[in-house]
Write a structure and sequence with these properties.
The protein is α/β, with parallel strands linked by helices. Helix content is 18%, strand content 42%. The strands form 2 sheets. The protein has a 4-stranded mixed beta sheet, with helices on one face. Strands 5-8-7-6 form a 4-stranded mixed beta sheet, covered by helices on one side. The N and C termini lie far apart (33 Å).
Length: 131
Amino acid sequence: MENSNQKITTCFMFNGKAEEAMNFYTSVFDQSEINSVFHYEDGTVLYATFTLKGQTFMAIDNSNKQEFPFTPAMSLFVTCDTEEEINRVFEQLSQDGKVLMPLAAYPFSERFGWVEDKYGVSWQLNLAKSK
């Protein structure tokens, strides 16, 4: 693992789209990169690591071909640093996905949105409080 201080890592299991999803996510978030990818003989992802905003994640493709969907009951909460960032990330993640809560002011946040992306992964986006 690239972040040796990180003791718990989220592992995404995609239904044949792990590499495509990692490429998409690393294009959406700053300070992001694909660290390593190992493939099965058929080209699907056996094991991969990638970093988004300095946080390391793992990805695999489902090798047993039984589809397991993601659910909004488990989501990634992202603190965005600027209004421009939250607007851009919300727009990109919601494209071909589903808006669960529109990007707006809420009693708990001055700017927040919740989306399910085109791969089924759920993202809660929050604008960091201005000091």
